[in-house]
Hints:
β8 and β9 form a beta hairpin. The relative contact order is 0.19. The protein is α/β, with parallel strands linked by helices. It is globular, with a radius of gyration of 18 Å. It has helices at residues 46-53, 90-97, 104-110, 127-140, 157-174, 185-191, 209-214, 219-226, and strands at 4-13, 20-30, 35-39, 61-65, 73-76, 145-149, 177-182, 194-199, 202-208.
Amino acid sequence: MRELTFENVTVRFGSRRRGTVAVDDVSLRVPAGQVVGLVGESGSGKSTLARAAVGLAPLASGRISPAPHERHVQMVFQDPYSALDPRMSVGESIAEAGRRAVDVAGLLELVGLPGDRAGDRPHLLSGGQRQRVALARALAGDPEVIIADEITSALDVSIQGAVLNVVRELQRRMNLTMLFISHNLAVVRYVSDIVAVMKDGRIVEYGPVDEVLGDPRHEYTRELLAAVPRPAH
């Protein structure tokens, strides 16, 4: 169990003079064994920050710990249909991600799938099942930190809740450190201990989820809350 920290992280695409700053001097702490929900609109820099944590977006400046090359951080991506190699069975994809011998059936059962699905190809699985396999694949790497990047946004509403329940149960059972990225405040409230609000590449608010979403201090957080659909009466 280990915390994830971003210290003055900047990610820039293009040249210094003509490039775009996607992440601007961000400092963020994900405490060990807790879930930090990172929320913001599309283009706010959330996914770029996540990709930087696993070495997929180069830093212009700053520091991330654990460093991406240490392989202590695993990421689950948004699109369950492109996350798995269609030429490999489910079991092969999970085993490939392990740093040592992997109990594939045990990992599948841990994410709520029968162990005998290990021989299936990805095309036989639904989106929700694929995302569970992606979770199992991330766990096969024996990570200390998991980053989940909009992992339910591509799924049907009817199965989003089931996947979120798996995520929450896994985190609690394994005491995982997790950065959970979403544009959906209801989802963030459900799974997170702490929430960080990101706007234009910067963190504008950070604190316990009930405190931030119950009494937000920043105008942008209030705007996000106001945009949440209200149930019809």
